Amino acid sequence: MVPERQLDILSSIKGFASFEDRLKGESYYPLMASGVDILQINVGKLCNLSCRHCHVSAGPHRTEMMSREIFEYCLAALKENVGITTVDITGGAPEMNPHLEWFIQEAFKLGRRLIVRSNLVILLDNKYKR
Fold first, then answer.
1. What does the pLDDT look like over 11-39, one tens digit per residue?
2. What whole-number distance in Å separates Cα of residue 11 and Cα of residue 122?
3. Which letter does DSSP use for residue 18 in this model?
């Protein structure tokens, strides 16, 4: 169903208010961020798996990968913004980025909570075992 038709159906329901109208009614309009708590970093699309459901189409054939220079920019952003309490690292398989271990060590020194979104299967590969 096309979005316009969905909106028509919803607006015909008694008491339905659009998101914008609801924000205005609750005195949250315009909606403004009060800060940044989480820095989510996608470190690349290289992955050891080729999952049909992958929303970024990651896989072993992908070559896109975050450079060390970009990781350094991310560290600089963390240093400048102490309100960012969590670093959420994702990708294809983040472990396949050669700069990940270095970045994790540096981010840890800053006292941030670190999340690495792994498919866990990669940990069966001898290269990534610890």
1. 889 888 888 989 999 989 999 988 999 99
2. 48
3. -
pTM, 2 dp: 0.77
**Ranges assigned E (strand) in the chain:** 38-42, 86-90, 113-116
Distance CA 89, CA 100 (A): 9
Q: For residue 46, how far is the Cα from the chain centroid?
A: 16
Please name the residue ranges forming H helices in 26-99. 68-80
- The DSSP element (H or E) to which 23 belongs, if any, is helix 19-25
Given this model, what pLDDT does residue 7 score?
A: 83
CA 123 to chain centre: 21
Q: How many other CB atoms sit within 10 Å of the CB of residue 74?
A: 19
Query: Using an 8 Å Cβ cutoff, are 128 and 78 in contact?
Result: no
- Give bridge partners of residue 115 from the DSSP assignment: 88
